[in-house]
Amino acid sequence: MMVGTAHRAMSSTQKLDRPETKSESRRAAARRLRAEQRRSVREMYRKRKTTLIKKAHELGKLCEVDIAVIICRNGRYFTYRSMDRQSWPPSMDQIVSEMLAL
Q1: Which residue ranges of the chain lie beneath pLDDT 70?
Q2: Which of 3, 35, 53, 83 is most deeply buried (CB count within 10 A of its CB)?
Q3: Is the CATH code 3.10.28.10 the one for domain 23-101?
Q4: Where are the domains of the chain?
């Protein structure tokens, strides 16, 4: 009687430890690849944003001009302005009207 019980327990653990099928391993590999791609895109975005802000700061200092940078990603806005203004960040209407006035 004990042999049969041990055999059943072993077969249930064998089911848990069974090797993945090809389709399961492909899906798992695809999930890992997508996660790695998301991380690399986030890292690239962070680095490029930092570089853009540095360049805007340098340009503002060297040419003594007012530089404004607005970055929108996934509905989140990041703003930078080289000179302090009381009403910063401006509304979208103010930006458009200033750009049309040029």
Answers
A1: 1-20, 84-90, 92, 102
A2: 53
A3: no
A4: 23-101
